[in-house]
Amino acid sequence: MSVVTQEVVIDAPIDRVYDVIVDYARYPEFVPGIKGCRVLAGGPGKRVEYELDLGIKRFKYVLRHEEERPRKVTWSLQSGELMKVSNGSWELHPEGDRTRAHYSVEILISKPPLVPQAVIDRISDELTKVNLPRNLHAFKARAESLR
């Protein structure tokens, strides 16, 4: 299982950063690879369906998000075509007019029959080692652009 954590300082107040994170429907506008994002249910846990294009594979999955305004958003996989596990969180800490954002994600890709392990490993690497830094930059750029 791949667990990756990273931290970034965003030149925006915590409320703005939080608002960007929980505006799931707008993810296709700025998050690399997200081709569709739709909130299925609100309430105490928002279920959100994502469509992700990694170039080598396009797939859908549903995450359940728990929100604790303005400091934390966690998620867990509810269903998905390719993933067995997708858990993670955003933890936000104010630093004056800036925000320190800690992002953590744990992913386990399922191996369908007849699919070589090398393909599964490549998808896992794409999700954790390539997408994560790009996604952090995308959220940082989005929050900083909304002045």
Notes on the protein architecture:
This protein has a single domain (2-145), classed as Alpha-D-Glucose-1,6-Bisphosphate, Chain A, domain 4 (2-Layer Sandwich), CATH 3.30.530.20. It is 28% helix and 48% strand. It has three helices and seven strands; from the N terminus they run βααββββββα. Strand 4 and strand 5 (72-80) form a beta hairpin. The chain starts with a strand and ends with a helix. The model has no long low-confidence stretch (mean pLDDT 88).
Give the termini separation. Answer: 38 Å
| CATH class bucket | Alpha Beta
Q: In total, how many domains does the architecture comprise?
A: 1
- Give me the CATH architecture, please: 2-Layer Sandwich
Strand portion: over 45%
Widest sheet: strand ordering: 1-7-6-5-4-3-2
Number of helices: 3
Characterize the overall form.
globular
Specify Rg, calculated over alpha carbons.
15 Å
Helix and strand run:
EHHEEEEEEH
Low-confidence stretches: none
CATH fold type = Alpha-D-Glucose-1,6-Bisphosphate, Chain A, domain 4
Helix content: 25-40%
Q: What is the count of β-strands?
A: 7
Return the structural class. alpha+beta
- Main sheet attributes: strand count, strand direction, barrel closure: 7 strands, antiparallel
Mean pLDDT: 88
